[in-house]
Design brief:
This protein has 350 residues and is α/β, with parallel strands linked by helices. The protein is 33% helix and 19% strand. The chain has an eight-stranded parallel sheet. A three-stranded antiparallel sheet has the order 1-10-13. Strand 6, helix 5 and strand 7 form a beta-alpha-beta unit. The longest helix has 16 residues. 47% of the residues are buried.
């Protein structure tokens, strides 16, 4: 059994790094491993304009330090007021590769999101005519729809009709969580792809309630039944280029997670590639990890594949119980698998 593996440097095509002190804490965790990170724009206020994305990107670059391999890619936040001119400005910016569609109220900091796709059809047509990608958080927000059914309902009510209306629109169905999501992407053709997170590969909804409610396992889209977890695992290791790595790493302070109304989000950037390696090894599919982590996303976004490599070694190590927030010693972030042993570790400073 090999104790080390080398793969082309991977990319994370869906990540939240927040801003301020939390940004300074979490960006180095991603920069140590990934070539590109696809930064989500749901700040308060949201990143809606190209010049705002430039300013945000500079903050991220400064937090990463001198790393030649690290290149943040940016998305703009779609609202009912986004214009065709906004699309043109984004398309002209080399660091912006997409627009993120949040249904209003679907997840963290999504209150400014789109209230109805019909309101933004001219903007979506402009995106379809550009080099940009539409990145979709695929959940309906109707309170009468069960939270575990929100993704499946979104496919039926929004995504399938949108595909029929603008078939040339290139779409990333972000952080899919269901067999219905997998089946939709497989049937949609080359213009649709999906990211898959480590938590949705590692866990089912049983884990969210194991021994009581576990706030650090709460994310949106929420963890689903075991049958959906199995469908995601099969998709991830299949070699199908429509599926690729996107952690949806979403840091929150412990105080905001462990409260009477805890916020959604799982922090995984501290050990992202290691988590995927454990999943792929458990499925006897380590030979498929490189394509999923390093090739499929770059190819879909029409970006060059990274040229350098990383090394992972099989060695037990314990995940820290927490990461103190930079500049705020009274606050901390609890990472995924806090205090647990992991089997793979990135070899740093090669």
């Amino acid at each position: 059994m090999k104790n080390t593996i080398q793969i082309t440097r991977p990319d994370d095509w869906h990540i939240h790094v927040r801003n301020g002190d939390i940004l300074k804490t979490v960006v180095p965790h991603s920069a140590r491993c990934f070539g590109r990170i696809m930064v989500m724009p749901n700040l308060v206020p949201p990143v809606c304009k190209a010049n705002q994305a430039d300013q945000y990107r500079e903050e991220i670059v400064q937090a990463a330090g001198e790393l030649a391999h690290f290149r943040p890619m940016m998305a703009l936040y779609l609202t009912d007021n986004t214009t065709v001119e906004d699309v043109r400005a984004a398309d002209a910016n080399p660091h912006i590769v997409g627009f993120k569609l949040y249904p209003a109220g679907a997840t963290t900091n999504s209150d400014s999101g789109v209230t109805s796709v019909t309101r933004i059809m001219p903007v979506l047509e402009a995106i379809a005519s550009s080099t940009l990608v539409l990145q979709i958080h695929g959940e309906v927000t109707d309170p009468n729809v069960d939270v575990f059914d929100r993704e499946a309902e979104f496919i039926d009510q929004v995504l399938s009709p949108l595909r029929r209306e603008i078939p040339e629109l290139r779409i990333v169905f972000e952080h899919i969580t269901t067999k219905q999501g997998v089946d939709f992407v497989k049937a949609a053709g080359e213009s649709v792809a999906a990211t898959i997170t480590p938590q949705h590969l590692l866990f089912s909804r049983n884990d969210l309630f194991r021994g009581g409610i576990r706030p650090h396992y709460y994310c949106l889209p929420i963890l689903k039944r075991h049958e959906h977890q199995l469908a995601l695992l099969d998709a991830a290791i299949s070699g199908d280029p429509s599926f690729f790595l996107g952690t949806d790493s979403a840091p929150h302070s412990r105080l905001k997670k462990e409260t009477s109304c805890g916020c959604a989000g799982i922090y995984s950037a501290h050990a992202a590639i290691e988590l995927y390696a454990e999943v792929f090894e458990a499925m006897d599919a380590l030979h498929q990890l490189e394509a999923f982590a390093s090739f499929h996303g770059a190819d879909f976004y029409r970006q060059p594949r990274n040229q350098d490599q990383i090394t992972l070694e099989r060695i037990d190590w314990e995940v820290p119980a927490n990461y103190p927030v930079a500049g705020n010693q009274e606050d901390e972030i609890v990472p995924l698998k806090a205090g647990e042993l992991m089997r793979w570790r990135l070899v740093e400073n090669e």
